[in-house]
């Protein structure tokens, strides 16, 4: 079991595998065995497009490959151990048949947003937002939240090293842009126009309080926002009645979940007050439709009917996206007809669980686990650089272990652990422990 590290290093085996053999602990697992789950998915441009691999495989099996993180995708099963990838999976050794149930949207070909642009972490100046239902990513400018930054469109700063486009710099450059029409902390979820068009119950809510839309009166005119809750008072659909009667003290307090003992649960209580006669099959409490929003969808739907009905042509007018504000899942009407329409889209009713690599506090940490945690700790917008960071860490570990190789010494777990402890201490000293 114990072998000299020199033999391993000499044989071109990646250090990831070398460390795995030196450490008697459980190796990070490919998620293939877990089946179709919502998880962070990586696109390996070197191996196969359109396919996706799990986070563990992105590190253990495709370290030196060109990759793109696609972030969470639901119902996705890792393709790494399957026949779809010629590259052998280092974590899941049994060859598996191709996954037939995975959906490979345009992200799996490296295209994003309704504009279909490629993503380049080093050059992208815009924040991108993920659609809750289709899980594609959209530029703020394509959502009509901002003007498109000019520099990116005209002259992409070719050859700028990734490290120079750091957080501070990208922060500064987005400060040059006008503020977005809807700030990120003012909504909870985006549903892109194409998804809104295809989900009637969401279309019905578009532009009503808490389902913001960016619209304009005339083509080329200024954009404005409809559906702000402040415009008509918070929670207008149930509380205007109560407010007028002065029945409830919590007017305007959306989350006033007063634990009044006599009453059952709040939603039922609300419903009962508004339509007391219909307790068995409650009437639909969806807010009155916003006619401007409906016009927009009618127009684009009829335009699409006229054109080829294939899903290929996406309108780029930037209208029809819906930004749902906090608590939107609690605000949907619970009548049987609305609920039935929502059932096809569980993510609209309940926040989905996203798989995270298991923590294993009892056993020592494997190199993969340490690497994964380092990746998870990176700020979101830098995560696409994570592979690069991991490669750098691997190189440093390599030089840390080289003396062992030269002396023909055995590498122990504590040697590897010492390396990481040093690194962690250095990182902490640099950031937190200044005082
Ligand atoms: Zn995998
Ligand atoms: Zn690969
Ligand atoms: Zn793999
Ligand atoms: Zn775009
Ligand atoms: Zn969508
Ligand atoms: Zn309803």
Automatic annotation (TrEMBL):
Keywords: Metal-binding, Zinc, Zinc-finger
Record keyword Nucleus present: no
PANTHER family: E3 UBIQUITIN-PROTEIN LIGASE UBR7, E3 UBIQUITIN-PROTEIN LIGASE UBR7-RELATED
A GO-annotated cellular component: cytoplasm
Chain ranges of the UBR-type domain: 28-94
InterPro entries linked: UBR7 (IPR040204), UBR7-like_UBR-box (IPR047506), Znf_FYVE_PHD (IPR011011), Znf_PHD (IPR001965), Znf_PHD-finger (IPR019787), Znf_RING/FYVE/PHD (IPR013083), Znf_UBR (IPR003126)
Region annotated Disordered, chain positions: 153-177, 243-286
The protein's name in its UniProt record: UBR-type domain-containing protein
One Pfam match: PHD
Biased composition (Basic and acidic residues): 243-264
Zinc finger (UBR-type): 28-94
Domain of life from the UniProt record: Eukaryota
GO molecular function: ubiquitin protein ligase activity; zinc ion binding
Entries under Gene3D superfamilies matching the protein: Zinc/RING finger domain, C3HC4 (zinc finger)
Organism lineage string: Eukaryota, Fungi, Dikarya, Basidiomycota, Agaricomycotina
């Amino acid at each position: 079991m114990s072998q000299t590290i020199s033999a391993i290093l000499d044989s071109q085996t990646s250090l990831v595998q070398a460390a795995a053999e030196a450490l008697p602990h459980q190796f990070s697992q490919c998620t293939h065995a877990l089946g179709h789950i919502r998880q962070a998915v990586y696109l390996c441009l070197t191996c196969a497009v359109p396919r996706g691999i799990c986070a563990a495989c992105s590190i253990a099996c495709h370290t030196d490959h060109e990759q793109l993180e696609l972030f969470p995708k639901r119902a996705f099963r890792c393709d790494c151990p399957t026949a779809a990838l010629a590259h052998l999976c280092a974590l899941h050794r049994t060859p598996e048949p191709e996954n037939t149930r995975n959906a490979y949207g345009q992200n799996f070909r490296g295209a994003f947003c309704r504009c279909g642009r490629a993503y380049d972490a080093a050059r992208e100046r815009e924040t991108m937002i993920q659609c809750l239902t289709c899980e594609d990513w959209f530029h703020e400018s394509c959502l009509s939240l901002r003007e498109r930054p000019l520099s990116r469109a005209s002259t992409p700063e070719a050859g700028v090293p990734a490290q120079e486009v750091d957080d501070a710099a990208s922060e500064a450059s987005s400060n040059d842009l006008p503020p977005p029409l809807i700030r990120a902390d003012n909504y909870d979820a985006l549903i892109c126009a194409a998804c809104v068009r295809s989900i009637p119950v969401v279309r019905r809510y578009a532009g009503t309080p808490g389902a913001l839309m960016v619209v304009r009166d005339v083509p080329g005119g200024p954009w404005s926002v409809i559906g702000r809750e402040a415009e008509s008072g918070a929670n207008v659909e149930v509380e205007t009645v109560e407010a007028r009667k002065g029945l409830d003290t919590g007017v305007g307090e959306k989350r006033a979940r007063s634990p009044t003992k006599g009453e059952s649960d709040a939603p039922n209580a609300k419903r009962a007050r508004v339509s007391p006669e219909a307790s068995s099959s409650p009437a639909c409490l969806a807010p009155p439709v916003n006619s401007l929003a409906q016009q927009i969808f009618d127009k684009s739907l009829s335009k699409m009917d006229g054109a080829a009905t294939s899903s290929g042509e996406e309108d780029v007018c930037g209208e029809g996206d819906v930004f749902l504000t906090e608590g939107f899942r609690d605000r949907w009407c619970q009548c049987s007809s609305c609920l039935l329409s929502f059932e096809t889209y569980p993510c609209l009713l309940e926040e989905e669980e996203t798989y995270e690599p298991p923590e294993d506090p009892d056993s020592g940490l494997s190199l993969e686990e340490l690497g994964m945690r380092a990746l998870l700790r990176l700020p979101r917008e830098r995560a696409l650089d994570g592979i690069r960071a991991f490669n750098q860490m691997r190189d440093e570990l390599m030089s840390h272990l080289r003396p062992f190789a030269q002396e023909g010494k055995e590498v122990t777990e504590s040697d590897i652990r010492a390396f990481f402890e040093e690194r962690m201490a250095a990182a902490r000293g640099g950031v937190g422990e200044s005082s």
